[in-house]
Amino acid sequence: MSYLLGFDIGGTFTDFSLLNTATGALHTHKRLTTTKDPAQGVMDGVRTLLAQNHVPMSALDTVYHATTLVANTLIERNGAKIALLCTKGHRDALEIRTEQRYDVYDLFLQYPQPLVPRYLRLSVNERVDRDGRVLVTPTEAEIVQLAAQLVNEQVDAVAIAFLHSYRNPINEQQVAAWLAKALGGKCDLPISLSSAVAPEIREYERTSTTVANAYVQPKVRGYLARLITSLKAEGYAGCLYLTLSSGGNASANMAAQYPIRLVESGPAAGAVAAAHFGATAGKQDLVAFDMGGTTAKICVIENGVPELARELEVARLHRFKKGSGIPLQFPSIDMIEIGAGGGSIAKYDLLGLLKIGPESAASDPGPACYGLGGTAPTVTDANLLLGYLDPNYFAGGKMKLHPYLAQQAFAALAAQGGKMSVSNDLQSHITQLAWGVYQLVNENMASAAKIHIIEKGRDPRQYTLLAYGGGGPLHGTSVAKILGANEVLCPLGAGVGSAIGLLIAPMSFEMAQSYPIKWDSVDLQDLNRLLAEMAQKGRDQLLEAGVTGEMTVERSADGRFVGQLHELNVGLPNGELSRQTQDEIRATFFARYREQYGHLPNNAGGTPAAIEFMSWRITVRGPQPQVQFARTPPLAAGMARKGSRLAYFGEHGWCDTSVYDRYALAAEVKLVGPAIIEERESTVILPPNMQAYVDGQLNLRIKVA
């Protein structure tokens, strides 16, 4: 027998999935993330999961991985010492940014410090114009001098970002070759070229992405090398694949070359799993709601496909203020992050108002109830005090929770609020405070999700909410009710959804190339050549990763009306572009623009304005993995109800609430709230007046009332 293994390192927990490819049996595991050395927690978890199921390491066929290492490195600023080689006169592009203020009313506005200090931003006398013509050629002598400076400064990696290199990369490539030659055997210095990492227009964003890639590259390379060595030392003979932010899997070599593309790998795998779960349940349009221990993520899935964004921003100084972080320019699944997870800390602000997050207790020290040294009141502590969590069955009984520690944390919060007199009933006040935390975190998540969905021109009431992650099923019904969604879908194994998604994602590679052209005067022969070259690069990446079988190619372009600042992405038809397809693409762009903005801008004569396309995008995918998950036959029908316990539901007060074993619920079983449905990695809350049933795929489907 052969097995597939997936593990996702999150901010609080590391999740594992193990699939028997012959029988379809799926086994899962969850353990606390070892923040100081994530690989240690991974290997401990792998050993535990394999031992529990009597599977030797040598039986693993393929291993898939998602990690927060890249995001955490950028947030914590503990990456490599790097240098930036840039066009003469442009060394301050990282500080000038776009010359836009992300908050015009903040008199004390701050931006994140560049990842490379100014004294290591080194100018090169070279120049390429916007059409790709080389105006100034760099000299080898200048690069030799710079190489000596880099050795003297003991930098760990180098980024090269020259002006307009997306149109012609020759100067970047020549400088990289001279630099490697000058360094010789002195050091193995990773070099990131903007023309390879992010060959797109917009100098600041392209430079920022390239610098970020260089900043995390040494750490990711070392981590992957150690992880692969550890796996092989214990008998694993296969390959390690990593999930990219775009939702596809890639080889470890590619991940080491472009590590910045791993920045949202875990959440992206979760979105892939959500699309799969939705498809098996006959739901193509979903709001995927992933709540973990540190953050929550919202992703819109339409027609069974998660939406993609052309860029994202990480390490924001202000989590909810776009423009306060580091912009990254590459395809990624479009998600909104909300500072609300099980470890999010509750506190009173200076105005005496209750606030949740974005600070998190994470896994170290964790929520107070973990008993690992944390004392701050968190969302998990509130869920425990409200009776939603069984202190003896958290993580399937592998972790014991301590209600009295949660009580102490919330008693301290109550005292901080200063709204209690000595005559108040402390226990009652703690209950109300825990309920307030539960309601507030739900409101925060639902409000952010609603804005995200409405900004896309969609109606949140028309979607099914699919809840996954350790905390998603705990909060899903309340978030759905605030959104106005009429159904919540909770798949079996939702608590480790991202780890399951790793096994489902196809091998893929996405790339973009800026090549601005006016659509009415396009040279189709030249454009077809460019698209063919991009598609071949994508195929080569998959072939290098060992992909066999048919590959599919999807193409699109970012277009705008001449004079506008922002673009819309439109799909391109298959095959060579012709005059006929040129007209079809124009019509598609008009329709897309009307859908987004409601009208078309016209020239003085009433004809539509001219279109220009700025960037061209290619996605090459390998065969979709033929993964089948066998549904374990439920236990005897009478064993589903485990008992009952008191749980608090606001206006309904404390209710005697039935508790069910998720693994004993057979298809077509119907439940009436209040009820709590427990599985090892997550818990589903069914409030009073709501009903649920188990469908043929053993998904729990809740009718929101």
Mind explaining what this structure looks like?
With about 700 residues, the protein is an alpha+beta fold. It has six domains: about 5-75 and about 220-260, Nucleotidyltransferase, domain 5, CATH 3.30.420; about 80-215, no CATH class; about 265-340 and about 440-505, ATPase, nucleotide binding domain (Nucleotidyltransferase, domain 5), CATH 3.30.420; about 345-440, no CATH class; about 510-620, Dna Ligase, domain 1; about 635-705, no CATH class. Strands 13, 14, 15, 20, 23, 24, 31, 34 and 35 form a nine-stranded mixed β-sheet that branches. The chain has a six-stranded mixed β-sheet with strand order 3-2-1-4-11-12, sandwiched between helices. The chain has a four-stranded parallel β-sheet with strand order 6-5-9-10, sandwiched between helices. The longest helix has about 30 residues, at about 205-235.
